[in-house]
Write a structure and sequence with these properties.
The chain is mainly α. It has helices at 2-15, 19-47, 54-64, 73-80, 84-96, 118-138, 144-163, 165-168, and strands at 70-72, 100-104, 112-116. The chain has two domains: 1-50; 51-165, Winged helix-like DNA-binding domain superfamily/Winged helix DNA-binding domain (Arc Repressor Mutant, subunit A), CATH 1.10.10. The chain is 67% helix and 7% strand. The protein has a three-stranded antiparallel beta sheet with strand order 1-3-2. The longest helix has 29 residues, at 19-47.
Length: 179
């Protein structure tokens, strides 16, 4: 890892307006990516025996935590940061497994409600203890206060990314076209 950090510092010294700040930002970005990859790998491992995936877990656990075990499909996508295309595929797979059911809202035909089925609620009862225990163990090296600080810092960072015109409209060099 030190070799990568040294390379980042060297590149930032050559190309960045503020080499130290840029090297730190690049190190942070890479650390976040490696951490996310590690979490993804861990989650794929412990969710697989339940016919779940990390993305399916987010949906199932959100439904389990909701009164009536039901959410509007649009709310799931908006609050859980799942794109419409991915959400449609995830819900279709959960529905084919009998874990959720989709139903058009009686009061507003434009709204599709997603509910946990009895099979889905039974799955949650088996899976939730494993889920919470595994995630707690993975974060066991951080104190509760450190976890809360990390949440606040990551929320702040995400808010900054959402507000940053540079992050939203990153440009790439235009391809040259031949005449």
């Amino acid at each position: 890892m030190q070799g990568i950090r040294a390379s980042i510092e060297a590149n930032c010294a050559l190309f960045a307006a503020d080499p130290v700040a840029s090297a730190t930002a690049m190190d942070l970005m890479l650390t976040l990516r490696r951490t996310a990859t590690s979490f993804q790998t861990m989650a794929e491992t412990y969710t697989r025996p339940y016919d779940l995936s990390p993305a399916r877990v987010v949906i199932v656990m959100a439904l389990a935590a909701t009164p009536g075990y039901t959410l509007a499909q649009a709310d799931i996508g908006r609050h859980l940061s799942v794109s419409l295309g991915n959400l449609t595929a995830l819900l279709a797979s959960l529905e084919s497994l009998g874990i959720v059911k989709r139903k058009t809202d009686a009061g507003d035909g434009r709204v599709t409600n997603i509910s946990l089925t009895a099979k889905g609620r039974a799955l949650v009862r088996r899976f939730a203890p494993v889920h919470y225990r595994t995630v707690a163990a993975a974060l066991g090296g951080l104190t509760l206060a450190e976890q809360q600080t990390l949440i606040a810092l990551l929320d702040k960072m995400r808010d900054q990314l959402k507000a940053s015109p540079t992050a939203q409209t990153a440009t790439s060099p235009r391809k040259k076209t031949s005449s």
